[in-house]
TrEMBL record:
Keyword Transmembrane carried by entry: no
Pfam families (alphabetical): CTP_transf_3 (PF02348)
Keyword Plastid: no
Protein name: Cytidylyltransferase domain-containing protein
Residues passing through the membrane, by range: none
Keyword terms: Nucleotidyltransferase, Transferase
Length: 230
């Protein structure tokens, strides 16, 4: 498989759960998650360009001070930057900014997905395309008792009421660390994945997503304890 790979990094201002989440100081990084992610993406050999789409003036100001040659900064329209903006709208926005090649959609809220992981994911994507997969997304396997509407989702209580969790068929949780597909898939499906995505597994720690205040604190603790690296 050939074709340019462009990272799409959406960052809107006004996080409701964690104020200034994307640029709030994190460990020894004064500009927090956005600083971490841009430095990680800059080191990824398989990424040709980074498109940062944001309406956050602090992030815009910070990004414009960086000496990252492959970084393209886009000031996003406020109509595409509210808490009501749907992912479907952002899919169209990503395609508008990146009309050709392959789009690697990622988030600053996955700080433990490093340049090494991105290169491994890109290599896997290229190999799986040859095997018939049309896209890739990262997932985390859940080995737990999952119920919905009063019934188990992933085990049969008529066979065994409480099986060992190690033997339960895992459910794949989309962790939103990476979505990787060609612009043609975006055009055809109006989606960031195709009809046959490869599910790339990341463990629970690497895929840690910062969505709530406690997620931010836990992430800092894991770095300070040396459990993960950036």
């Amino acid at each position: 498989m050939t074709g340019k790979i462009t990272a799409f990094l959406p960052c809107r201002a006004g996080s409701e759960r964690v104020p200034h989440k994307n640029i709030k100081p994190f460990c020894n990084y004064n500009f927090g998650l956005i600083e971490i992610k841009l430095k990680q993406l800059d080191k990824v050999e398989g990424i040709d360009e980074i498109v940062l789409s944001t309406n956050d003036f602090d992030i815009l100001e910070y990004a414009n001070t960086l000496k990252i040659e492959k970084l393209r900064v886009h000031k996003r329209n406020e109509q595409l930057s509210s808490s009501q903006t749907s992912t479907d709208q952002l899919v169209k926005h990503a395609l508008h900014l990146i009309p050709q090649g392959n789009i690697l959609w990622t988030h600053v809220t996955s700080p433990f997905v490093t340049n090494k992981h991105y290169d491994e994911i890109i290599s896997c994507y290229k190999n799986k395309k040859r095997d018939g997969y049309d896209s890739l997304m990262t997932v985390t396997e859940i080995y737990s008792f999952l119920w919905q509407e009063g019934t188990p989702l992933n085990y049969d209580r008529s066979l065994e009421k409480w099986p060992r969790t190690q033997t339960i068929k895992p459910v794949n949780e989309v962790n939103s660390a990476v979505f990787l597909a060609s612009s043609e898939v975006y055009k055809k499906n109006n989606d960031r994945i195709g009809s046959n995505p490869y599910l790339y597994k990341l463990n629970k720690i690497i895929s840690h997503d910062i969505d709530w205040p406690e997620d931010f604190v836990i992430a800092e603790c894991m770095v300070e304890k040396g459990i993960v690296s950036l």
